[in-house]
Design brief:
The complex is a heterodimer of chains A (110) and B (116). Helix content of chain A is 0%, strand content 52%. By secondary structure, chain A is mainly β. In chain A, the strands form two sheets. In chain A, strands 2, 4, 5, 6, 9, 10 and 11 form a seven-stranded mixed sheet that branches. In chain A, strands 1-3-8-7 form a four-stranded antiparallel sheet, with no helix packed on it. Chain A is globular. Chain B is mainly β. Chain B is built from no helices and twelve strands. Chain B has strands at residues 3-6, 11-14, 19-21, 23-26, 32-38, 44-50, 56-59, 62-65, 75-77, 86-93, 104-106, 110-115. In chain B, strands 2, 5, 6, 10, 11 and 12 form a six-stranded mixed sheet that branches. Chain B is globular and about 45 Å long. Chain B starts with a strand and ends with a strand. Classes of the chains: A mainly beta (110), B mainly beta (116). The interface between A and B is medium-sized, with 20 and 19 residues.
Amino acid sequence: NAGVTQTPKFRILKIGQSMTLQCAQDMNHNYMYWYRQDPGMGLKLIYYSVGAGITDKGEVPNGYNVSRSTTEDFPLRLELAAPSQTSVYFCASRGSTEAFFGQGTRLTVV
Amino acid sequence: GDSVTQMEGPVTLSEEAFLTINCTYTATGYPSLFWYVQYPGEGLQLLLKATKADDKGSNKGFEATYRKETTSFHLEKGSVQVSDSAVYFCALSQLNSGGSNYKLTFGKGTLLTVNP
């Protein structure tokens, strides 16, 4: 049982490049989330999904897009990377109670 | 909207000291409350939880009691170890009007450092 798997673990992007952060869970959870964590700060919700085909914005969605074509996968897309998107990104999934988190993707935009 | 306020760190303690990290919340209805822990370089993992008033969550020597009258969920441990050094997050989930408690609200986190 792998839980929540995020790839890649680290990435350096140049300004204006695009990339997709992958997230997969094998617990058949309906709810999935993307958070970003800036140095010394708490978590900010980017997007969330309550089930396949349903996504909604969190508190900081600008510059990101998501899709949820299957229950298992919830990729996060950065279209035009900006230095302000340098952060650690966490994916999480949730069944009826607690959330389970991936190990994070550390992204640097230069 | 819902919010979670926890004491700001950093908190530095000596091994075997008593730990309290305060957490208060604002929410309508009856949220579930959680403490998560983040060790260096890792993701968050659930430490303990409580789903109704007066419930006590406990794990690894940590405890927290859901106090509805004071809207609090303070984390305590009687004797901390060096291995407890981490960031601790208080969080709540809310049952919305549709009956789906999908949203998690986190506090800003408290960095705990335990010295030998």
